[in-house]
Amino acid sequence: MNDFWKSYDITHAEYGADYRCYPLYGTVHLMELAISLAFIVGAALWYRRSSARTRRRILVGVTALLLLDQAALLLGMALTGQWNWGYLPLHLCNINVFVCLYNTITDRNWCKEELYALCIPGAMLALLCPSWLDVPSWWTLINLHSVSIHALLVLYPVLLVASGYRPSPRRVPQVLAFLFGSALPIYFLNQSLNTNFYFLNDPYGNIITSTFTALLGEKYYILGFLPATALALLLMYLPWAADDKKKKRA
């Protein structure tokens, strides 16, 4: 099989479980981050300067790219005989692809709030600390898919804010309800399918959950998500709360 199509399982068998195709913040990783940033900033500037009709087309286009990107991975793994339950689109970022689709169709504030509060920091962290490096090289379906889909997931809610959507700290309970409400069934699904969606079944292979394990131990690493989520929400809403406070003073 050509290296381009090889999955984690084949790479582990050939190179060992500790193999990484490129180092964090090495040349390849920095180039991927730079290209992603340029794409997001460029698309957001184009969107902001566009008419309402063009904005709608851009949003639909980004949604279509997200769905095609997700489908490409599933189809690639299926056609090469590598598909398993772990490729179900049930990580938080995968689920946000469908939240983007639902928002594009219905234009709901709770979708926008969840995408702003969870999708942006989650997808950004995935790009900054990728957990998909155990593939043969950067030129693989899995690596290219993972970089592109997470860049698109950052872009979508950025476009919502660029069009005037204003996140509200008052909607944080809705965001938390979505996060923990979706994590609970995923936790039990992981047990039955031996998968690791939301990284709730195994802390290894992800630098963030591995850090939680180093600090809290393997038994309690899940507790690390609580302060991490609180910090992420604080960083995402602090600018808006400060702006509200400034307007009230004025």
UniProtKB/TrEMBL annotation:
The chain crosses the membrane at residues 24-46, 58-79, 85-103, 115-133, 139-160, 172-189, 220-240. The keyword Hydrolase does not apply. Keywords: Membrane, Transmembrane, Transmembrane helix. InterPro entries: CHP02206_TP0381 (IPR011737). NCBIfam families: intg_mem_TP0381 (TIGR02206). This is Integral membrane protein (Intg_mem_TP0381).
